[in-house]
Amino acid sequence: MANSVDMDPDVALRLFEEGATLVLLGVPQGTEVGIDCKSWQVGPRFKGVKMIPPGLHFLHHCSVNSPNCGGEVGPKMGLFLNLKPRDILLATWDPKEEDLDFSASQSEEEVSRIRATLRDLDPFLGPYPYEVMRKWVSLTDRLSEEVATGLQPLSGRICAFSDVIPEVQLRHTKDRAEQPRNDAACQSMKEGLDRLPRMKPREGTEMRFSVIPEKMYPPGATPAQITQCSLDRSYALETVLQKHHQLQPLNLLGELQFSFVCFLIGNVYEAFEHWKSLLALLCRSEEAMRKRKDLYLGLIAVLYHQLGEIPPDFFVDIVSQSNFLTSTLQDFFQFAGGSGVDVALRKRAEKFKAHLTKKFRWDFDADLDECEPVVVELPDGVTVD
């Protein structure tokens, strides 16, 4: 592991004196280890990372089979760490779990021992990849330790593949007898799917994202209100903010960044789906755009950096060739240009639109399908004559 960018000597000295250290012992050679936006395959001398700038970081790793066993790469696992100046975190590799065990960090005696031998360890510690620091900060500047801790699983581990178990444990013969039989050919895809055991995330391993309401309208809403709430999702957005980010609404931008990082670096597809849902909610909330200037100025800044990290055709639906992002942002730019929107926000949105049009060649001025019927769900018992 080596830095590909020459670091300013003053910065290097400051990071050497004030930076945090991750001591990672026993990591098998060839394991893919990374911190923030950079990863590498560790060699035989690797024992950790030094000169880490204080703050929030994402440590991630993948187990790799030896070339003799096929060289397959396992699912990525990661966790967010908030490091203070001169912090030392100690972890040892657990070969059974193929994971890092940080329990030694709870022992002051162990940490003191490592601190006393840090000079001897120094040749085995790779420097933090300082060249990615600017990118990492731009992707997480709205993400606090509190928000990250509240969103990641209770287990403390973010895994690319969900750890699932059967909803029904089938411990008894009677339970197994009640399950669909699998000794005959399926007559349809649905039948085949119905025969599969129903699975659920293992307790403590699920992401704790904000829950976006399925119904975008308030209880007892009239058909007209339901239609309005389907066109302008401000009610649903305010519901999410009140329930999950009441004290600090701008933390929703931190959740947007958390989701993006978990997908971009952690390979968590569920996080990508949540990112899309949050983005659609924000971009299609016209009334909120008039009321929450700071939230939307922040959204533009967050998206500017996020969209700089992905290829322009990434969001294209393979089946329909439609671009989720252009249609979502088209609504955003339309609302941002409406009456009652703060002048500074309107101008920022116009600049952002011009930037995206130039960089990605996305057309936000195509005719909107204003005549398309809007299908809405009516509450039970409500009918339209």
TrEMBL record:
Interacts with PRPF8 (via RNase H homology domain). Component of a U5 snRNP complex that contains PRPF8. Residues 209-365 form the AAR2 C-terminal domain. Keywords: mRNA processing, mRNA splicing, Spliceosome. InterPro entries: AAR2, AAR2_C, AAR2_C_sf, Aar2_N, AAR2_N_sf. GO terms for biological process: spliceosomal tri-snRNP complex assembly. Residues 18-153 form the AAR2 N-terminal domain. This is Protein AAR2 homolog. CDD domains: Aar2_C, Aar2_N. Component of the U5 snRNP complex that is required for spliceosome assembly and for pre-mRNA splicing. Pfam families: AAR2, AAR2_1st. Gene3D superfamilies: 2.60.34.20, Aar2, C-terminal domain-like (1.25.40.550). Belongs to the AAR2 family. GO terms for cellular component: spliceosomal complex.
